[in-house]
Amino acid sequence: MSTEQDKLLYAKINLETAQIPWKELERFFAGGMVISVNENVDMIQVAQWMASDDVAAISGMLEKKEIQKITDDQARIWSDSDAMLWAVVVKPWILVQQRRS
Questions:
Q1: SS3 category, 73
Q2: What is d(CA 67, CA 61) in angstroms, rounded to the nearest whole number?
Q3: Which of 3, 13, 29, 101 is the most exposed place for a label (fewest CB within 10 A)?
């Protein structure tokens, strides 16, 4: 992919991000389709790598635990606190990120 195509994909994904209440994501969590992105990581870049099927980049992030499946404990915390998360869909996954103000 060329640099211009990379920029366009990044911009497209950026436009598809939104804040969403955790409660609306719980059914997808139950299906194992939600991935948490560490707050210090560019979620849009992660989505771009997933959309481009960049196995090396995603594998490295999994190893460093910069991205990971949501644990039951984390889901419970978000549910109890009515958490609002940033999210973007990269089928079949939903990436979520909690940002602290």
A1: helix
A2: 6
A3: 101
Q: Map tokens 């299906």 to a residue.
A: 31
30-35: long-range pairs with CB below 8 Å, 24+ = 32/69, 33/92, 33/93, 33/94, 34/69, 34/70, 34/93, 34/94, 34/95, 34/96, 35/67, 35/68, 35/69, 35/70, 35/93, 35/94, 35/95, 35/96
* Helix axes of 3-15 and 43-51: crossing angle, nearest 10 degrees: 120
- List the beta bridge partners of residue 97: 86
Give residue-wise pLDDT tens across range 58-91: 999 999 999 999 999 999 999 999 999 999 999 9
- In percent, how much of the chain has pLDDT > 70? 97
Instruction: Find the domain containing 30 and state its range.
Output: 3-97
Residues paired with residue 95 on neighbouring β-strands, in sequence order: 35, 88
